[in-house]
Request: fold
Amino acid sequence: MAQRDFRTRLSKRASKAGLFLPGELTADLVSYYELLSRWNRKINLTALENVDEAIDRLLLEPVAAAKHFPEATASIMDVGSGGGSPAIPMKLAIRSVSLTMVEVKARKSAFLREAVRTLHLDKTTVETSRYEELLARPELHEAFAVLSLRAVRVEVKILHTLQAFVRPGGVLFLFRGPSGPAIPELVPPLRWIATVPLIEALQSRLTVLQKLR
Reply:
């Protein structure tokens, strides 16, 4: 698909989702999608068969989620970053935040680093590691205002581990489809704050958990 056609399609999908995309953000999202498509032909990063669904899930859903960042959010950790969504579109939507992407697979990490370079993402790092291994780094403890998760199994033990990276008062963003994954019964220091709709066409939702102060 030609870039102009894709840009038009992106704008139409954004309008349908009730999102306004400034020109610079539109251009950045198009550049990210083009890079993702090129790399996807070599390594399996994500499913791109249905263009409208890919636009909604990979580009627009994260932009919609970024609108729910707590005020003055300065830092994000994304766990299981894969092909870069939702992390990179959220960063593109609010470039002032710092971003740490955690991805265990080296080839996917290589793509993420190329995306950081191509899209000129400052204050952005890629950790090729399991998130459990990062617990050994004290500088990452309670270092992030937002921790985002998509396609990561949601269990009490996992949430309890991940909250160690979130500062008191910070939040976990859980990206969810129409039927799950179910949120387990929470234990302190986490509490449920809200579940909000993201993209109507996907029936996707964002569940927000807060780490108690």
Remarks:
- Residues 138 and 165 are 10 Å apart (CA to CA).
